[in-house]
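How a chain folds remains the central question behind the approach discussed here. This step matters because it turns folding into a mapping between discrete strings. The sequence in question and its structure tokens are set out directly beneath this paragraph.
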Amino acid sequence: MPAENHSQIASFIWSICNLLRGPYKRNEYRKVILPLTVLRRFDCVLAPTKGQVLKEHAAIKAKGENIIRHRLSQITGVPFFNLSKFTIAKPAEMMGLNGLLDDPNQLAPNLNSYINGFSPNVRAIIERFKFPEQIAYMAEKNLLYLVIKQFAAIDLSPDRVDNVQMGYVFEELIRIGAEQSNEEAGEHFTPREVIKLMVNLLLSPEKDLARSHVVKTIYDPACGTGGMLSVAEKYIRDLNADAQPKLFGQDWNDEAWAVCKSDMLIKGEDADAIILGDTFTKDGFDRTADGKKWTFDYMLANPPFGVEWKQQQRYIENERDTLGFSGRFGAGTPRVNDGALLFLQHMLAKMRAPQDGGSRLAIVFNGSPLFTGDAGSGESEIRRWIIENDWLEAIVALPEQLFYNTGISTYLWVLTNRKESSAGRAKSRKGKVQLIDARQFWVQMEKSLGNKRRRIGDPFDKEKDPDHIGELTKIFGDFRDGQTRTFTEEDAVTHQPVQRQRVISKVFDNEDFGYHKITVERPLRLNFQASAERIARLDDEVGFKNLATSAKKDPTVRQQEIEAGQQRQAQIRELLRAFGKATKEKLFKDRGAFLTELRTLDRERDVRLSAPELQAVLAALGERDDTAEICRDPARRDQPEPDADLRDTETVPLKESIEAYFKREVLPHVPDAWIDHSKTKVGYEIPLNRHFYRYEPPRPLEVIETDIKRLEDDIMKMLKEVTA
């Protein structure tokens, strides 16, 4: 096999896809390549001990399952084994064993038998790949023998390809497979340059990673194919070869989980730390074996954007209501159509206590978690909880068109519960949040991959790239307010490249993102008149109309209630007509005076208006009148009754006095207004775009006209070509 490094090995393996063209679409190649790479690697790893394993199993097969698994794993030196008499490629010294290619006519059943001979941990992986279905399909299309023959020729033995290199090979295959399935890639695969930036921001401030044999735990609750875990592990090992990073992850997609777990096994990691299941309904890392709460040193995630959590709603709300802050969702729940902030709460619940070293985490979001939700809403309360606990360290606005399945704006959040120790500089991050505008830090891709048309520059990946990752890491580390960079941009008028200086880093106090939402009330002012026109409005009032209705099922009883109601309606109309006549249809500008006279007549005629009836009368006979007297609360005469139609809200920065703001911004325009303090709420939002807003003057009209004329000419030219 002509292979010298992991890229060459991966390219050689992927070239086998040429055999799949026709029966398989490009985005389906991974369904064959990934599980067969896993099987071939395991076949090579187990080859030296295969005979001994079979012999030992024959001797101890009557023993318990745990004893068998322990003994055979001791022989193989890895946490898996195979009890089948088949091998993918049979070395000459393996007498008594059968190579899968020895009997082409029985290749499919023999391959299934070979897979079934693996230990349960490997079988579970292959089952989640749904590989038996692919075996049947390849056999049907006469491809199986050709494909297996190609894989049998690949030497993936550990003495040729060690665990680290094999891990890189598998990750490269995952990357290629993701790029081949553009529409699905973003669900389970985060671009490597984005992950590298996340890891750099997360780990670069850490001072103890160089300690000899340091042990660090890394967790991804939406691990997908395990890319974030792998890059974080590599960062730590590159920094310190003796370090011992421990990887943990969970995902609910079968194939993504199978890929991640395979990668862990291939690299010799603890594959049992990769859990299959819904993170929200079945937390795979709730409690340790000794009953302690799971916590981690570092956490990373790129949860799905805008995915609803309706299916998990019952579980999540039950945990919120029963466990509160001792569970994962005590701060509240966002709207059911976007569960991104639930992932963040889940991760925050797994932070180590600061006295035990604390934790740091990074997560990718779309724009929604920055500002969605009004004061008092679930989203706002979650932001408030995070910021008031001083966990939010930085937010980085990423370039658009970075991801495979979306071109929308994305943001990287960095959080920690040990700001002071992580800053390591004269300027403490305590009580501060850094916003970084990295939207200009991108390189155009030579070829688009789905919605991914840009990448963050990384010279370690592309030699000629600018070092955007290194620069952004430095900007984060500098922690400077007002830091600038100069970018080359296209002038909107001349369309020529120009150099412009942009602010790319701002530092804020936590309180800068908070505000009071106050309710401003104005008094209700109404006039009243018992005119024929206004009395006629009674028929439109719900309280009045309901008098002549009935919910009774018995037709006779129902009819009786309706007739009684109609009589009551007639009685009320007659009362109001009499009142209008007695007052000569006087226009009352004082509700109190109007009610006094109406009640007097009501008692005289013994109509006895009920509260709902009186409410309907007031609604029909009243009209808004700015010259009328203020309507007072009947229970508290000194308290004006608010006009719901004139009710308004104001947003007051948390750092500013509510009363000072009210006197300055409201009272000069509406002197009779007041604040209903019982309705005041605290909200938090992070208007990143507003903080980095750059005014662009509109183009001159003559430039716009020139562009329109050019477009019209182009259209006419195309029309002539069509009609010629």
